[in-house]
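From the methods appendix. Each design record in this collection lists the tokenized structure first, followed by the designed amino acid sequence. Records were kept in a plain field format so they could be parsed without special tools. The example shown here is representative of the layout used throughout.

RECORD:
FOLD TOKENS (263 positions):
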């Protein structure tokens, strides 16, 4: 049984829900994994949400390690983010208690250092198809709108020193030109034709209906993609360096969305 490390910033309820779902699937034996430890880049009493996360993890009898990123050399973080990133993750490595088969960045909001990538096998989620737009989820969506893309997706990839450039392991794809989307495209196109993307951002920004719909469809596929990817890694159906990757898990994910059952 593979041992994993769970890395999070515990920023929101989604971070709690993801841990709860993965933990429940481990307990039900759907995921043949063991969570060796949970690392949180915050400390107790830093935020109410992270405190709730600590409580939930402890209720699951998980080993929790915490080290505040915000409180670690804040002046250096502002002046020299690269050096800060290296020093912070050196300290994190000292705190990790045992070897793991791989680590999951589950809402971990800090870019990891090169050394961290070298020391640990890490996987992360990126809200685009393999070869698709880079950057934050917001930047991805704006690029999709700007290019009038017909589809997008979500992928799990190996973490490397090159941000969002690690080898993709799995993905799910979905259309953003379905009947539900078309009226939203038409509304946005009126603004795009007159004011271009810059104008759309200024006039409506992230309140834009098309922007919100793309985000909604992506988010609901993230959790099942993570669970299925963990299962396939645990069962050696996804192996680092396999030239046949990435694995298309669209059918699995869409079936989950219909049934709300992993199978």
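DESIGN:
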């Amino acid at each position: 049984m593979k041992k994993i490390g769970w890395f999070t910033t515990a920023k929101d309820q989604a971070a709690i829900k993801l841990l709860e779902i993965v933990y429940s699937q481990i307990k039900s034996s759907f995921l043949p994994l063991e969570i060796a430890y949970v690392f949180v880049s915050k400390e107790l009493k830093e935020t109410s949400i992270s405190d709730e996360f600590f409580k939930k993890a402890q209720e699951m009898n998980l080993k929790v390690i915490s080290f505040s990123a915000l409180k670690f050399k804040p002046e250096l973080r502002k002046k020299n983010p690269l050096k800060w990133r290296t020093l912070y993750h050196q300290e994190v490595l000292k705190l990790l208690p045992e070897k793991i088969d791989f680590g999951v960045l589950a809402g971990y909001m800090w870019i990891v250092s090169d050394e961290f990538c070298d020391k640990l096998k890490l996987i992360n989620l990126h809200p685009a198809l393999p070869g698709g737009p880079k950057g934050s989820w917001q930047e991805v969506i704006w690029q999709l709108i700007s290019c009038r893309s017909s589809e997008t997706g979500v992928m799990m990839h190996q973490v490397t020193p090159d941000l969002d450039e690690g080898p993709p392991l799995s993905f799910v794809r979905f259309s953003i030109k379905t009947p539900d989307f078309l009226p939203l495209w038409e509304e946005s196109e009126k603004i795009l034709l007159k004011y271009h993307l810059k104008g759309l951002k200024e006039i409506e920004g992230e309140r834009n209906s098309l922007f919100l719909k793309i985000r909604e469809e992506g988010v609901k596929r993230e959790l099942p993609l993570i669970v299925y990817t963990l299962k396939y890694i645990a069962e050696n159906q996804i192996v680092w360096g396999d030239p046949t990757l990435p694995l298309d898990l669209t059918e699995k994910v869409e079936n989950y969305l219909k049934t709300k059952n992993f199978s």
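APPENDIX NOTE: The longest strand covers residues 33-40.
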